[in-house]
């Protein structure tokens, strides 16, 4: 639920009821008072109820809830049982980790399916606007393992380029993966790296420094 | 499978009530044809087709589990 309109005896009561309904707190919402409400004489004659509208702000906490619900429903429709842990890591990152049997299918070739899931959930979570939140979807530490593999590959190819003096082109990778390779090699003497081509075929090139 | 495609499509567009998914079984594969409102075409295709590609990837993963071959088409 994104917003509610509540009628109650006073503005304060209406806000309280609305926050309870949305299961949130005051710093996560915008409140507009639609009708002030009056007590009237003796507390009833001519009294008018207050009306407020409470709308969630697209905060990272809300985006975290959207992300979780989205992946739960998606996995249910895919008939893939999994347990989900979702955390707000910092102001711009939401971390989601999936655990279960045979989730290799959800990772796909070189993480393609995992990246697709991540792209969909990021798009959906950020639809309402607000500060862009990055949703990182991982499966039993796959991303960390992949990062180690890429770093090792980068170092191996880096020393090869240094030894042979010939440039090497890596396989196409996502922006995140290319960044891992670039940063692993940026302090190594005698070589430099850049990227060539257009996504999804953009790849890192390692070449000897002139 | 149709429900999955429908869920993904609806999650991305503004006009959810005009989203339709048609299932066409050609014998060796099933084609899911998505139709959305004109103004939502950008949302379902994405920059350089990235969203459309993600929809295909996720749908195909689900199909692999069920042992079927699928295609996803977005129709204008």
Characterization of the model:
The complex is a heterodimer of chains A (210) and B (76). Chain A is of the alpha+beta class and 210 residues long. Chain A folds into three domains: 3-56, Defensin A-like; 60-140, GMP Synthetase, Chain A, domain 3; 144-208, R3H-like domain (Ribosomal Protein S8, Chain: A, domain 1, 2-Layer Sandwich). Chain A has helices spanning 11-22, 60-78, 104-107, 112-125, 142-164, 175-185, and strands at 3-8, 29-35, 50-56, 83-88, 93-99, 134-139, 168-172, 191-196, 203-208. The model of chain A has no long low-confidence stretch (mean pLDDT 91). In chain A, strands 1-3-2 form a three-stranded antiparallel β-sheet, covered by helices on one side. In chain A, strands 4-5-6 form a three-stranded mixed β-sheet. A three-stranded antiparallel β-sheet of chain A has the order 7-9-8. In chain A, helix 5 (142-164) crosses helix 6. Chain A has six helices and nine strands; from the N terminus they run βαββαββααβαβαββ. By secondary structure, chain B is α+β, with helices and mostly antiparallel strands. Chain B has a single domain (2-75), classed as K homology (KH) domain (GMP Synthetase, Chain A, domain 3, 2-Layer Sandwich), CATH 3.30.300.20. Chain B has three helices and three strands; from the N terminus they run H-E-E-H-H-E. Chain B has helices spanning 2-12, 41-45, 50-66; strands spanning 20-25, 30-35, 70-75. Chain B has a three-stranded mixed β-sheet. The model of chain B has no long low-confidence stretch (mean pLDDT 94). The interface between A and B is medium-sized, with 22 and 20 residues.
